[in-house]
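Try this one yourself first.
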């Protein structure tokens, strides 16, 4: 079975810029499919939340198209590629976020004139049929590593409040969007209960609750992780790696910086102590302690 690589905010909508989160913690249809399929999956870090934090404006692609952001994306792409190779994951499906300036694939928000005084982006018209910056660099890097993969981006109707659901290359109604997602993930659409999602869809409904855990917990005890999802927690799931390299330690540093940015805006962080966990997770705990962040986090322990 192919592994699914998820854009970060699919499992942690708290990482999105203010005003554009349709779900309270996870993009529920995707989570329901992943847990039902018992599919292997990995969650990418969010380069936007690391680079600009959680009070950032709604950017367009041109604002992220700079040397520092591209270098951050390259480092994440290389580190994640090394982790995929170590875990013998050579074939996978990558899911981005439609019209995102970093994680869009079919279309991305674009306006070369945007800069200076903040103003609204016209998402109905200010779009280009091209990937966002992060997806561009992931695609370039994954090709160099020789991976066998497909890329898809969630339609805007699945991830944004209704007023931001532009795009010409995506389905025009919620049910069609979910059907398209199910085709990509080879999942029986009839197993989903669309009527349940209507009650969970709000405008910028983030709850500001996040569980940090090793991916091992989600693989070996998915019911435990599901308990936290049901309680409204988004997820930051640290991938598994036993062989630490400079490239992989960059991934640790990226996750730690993102966690710090969440704390700085008042988000509640739960840190799961779970055994067994990999050396990469242990290094994450070490970096959190070195940066004085553990004191600001609630720790929960499971064996």
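Now uncover the answer:
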């Amino acid at each position: 079975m192919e592994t699914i690589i998820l854009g970060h905010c699919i499992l942690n909508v708290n990482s999105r810029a203010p005003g554009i989160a349709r779900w309270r913690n996870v993009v529920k249809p995707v989570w329901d499919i992943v847990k039902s399929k018992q599919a292997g999956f990995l969650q990418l870090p969010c380069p936007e939340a690391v680079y600009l934090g959680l009070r950032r404006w709604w950017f367009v692609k041109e604002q992220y198209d700079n040397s520092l952001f591209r270098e951050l994306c390259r480092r994440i792409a290389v580190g994640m590629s090394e982790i995929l190779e170590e875990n013998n994951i050579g074939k996978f499906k990558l899911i981005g976020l439609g019209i995102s300036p970093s994680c869009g694939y079919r279309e991305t928000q674009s306006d070369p004139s945007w800069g200076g005084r903040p103003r609204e982006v016209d998402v109905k018209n200010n779009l280009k049929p091209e990937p966002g910056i992060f997806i561009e660099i992931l695609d370039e890097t994954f090709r160099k590593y020789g991976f066998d993969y497909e890329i898809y981006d969630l339609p805007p109707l699945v991830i944004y409040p209704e007023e931001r659901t532009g795009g010409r290359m995506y389905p025009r109604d919620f049910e069609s969007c979910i059907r398209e997602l199910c085709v990509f993930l080879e999942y029986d659409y009839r197993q989903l209960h669309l009527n349940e999602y209507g009650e969970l869809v709000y405008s910028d409904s983030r709850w500001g609750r996040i569980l940090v855990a090793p991916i091992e917990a989600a693989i070996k005890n998915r019911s435990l992780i599901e308990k936290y999802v049901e309680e409204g927690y988004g997820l930051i799931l640290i991938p598994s790696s036993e062989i630490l390299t400079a490239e992989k330690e960059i991934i640790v540093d990226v996750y730690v910086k993102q966690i710090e940015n969440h704390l700085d805006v008042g988000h509640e962080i739960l840190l799961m102590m779970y055994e067994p966990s990999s050396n990469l997770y242990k290094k994450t705990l070490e970096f959190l302690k070195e940066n004085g962040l553990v004191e600001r986090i609630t720790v929960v322990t499971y064996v």
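Discussion: The CA atoms of residues 133 and 264 lie 26 Å apart. The chain has a mean pLDDT of 93.
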